[in-house]
Amino acid sequence: MDGVANKALRANLIEKLEKTPAAVIRIGSILIVKTESELRVRELTAQELQYLEANPGPRKDPATAAMVFSLHEGPKELSEVRTSPVSGNE
User: Fold this and answer.
1) Is residue 86 in a domain?
2) Is residue 30 part of a domain?
3) pLDDT of res. 88
4) pTM score, two decimals?
5) Which of 29, 57, 61, 88 would disulfide-bridge 83, Cβ 3.0–4.6 Å?
6) CA-wise closest residue to 68 among 48, 87, 89, 54
7) Rounded distance, CA 70 to CA 43, Å?
8) Is residue 33 part of a domain?
9) How confident is the chain (90 residues) per 10-residue block, as mean pLDDT?
């Protein structure tokens, strides 16, 4: 997929999420996280992709995903982040 098509896909997804209160969507290395207060799009590094595959918490909870992948702040070492299991989603 070229850059123009990729941007169009992201824009369409963001528009569709307008009425959704919270979501975590991953398309390849692109992570879209919507919380009650914001919507962020981020391209994940190889290390972050591996972390996401090994840890289901951020895939199930937008607030956890925002914290783990530093969508509110600058980059963090993944080992610094502690997540708690999302109840009912195991």
Assistant:
1) no
2) yes
3) 39
4) 0.68
5) 57
6) 48
7) 12
8) yes
9) 74 85 90 88 88 89 86 46 40
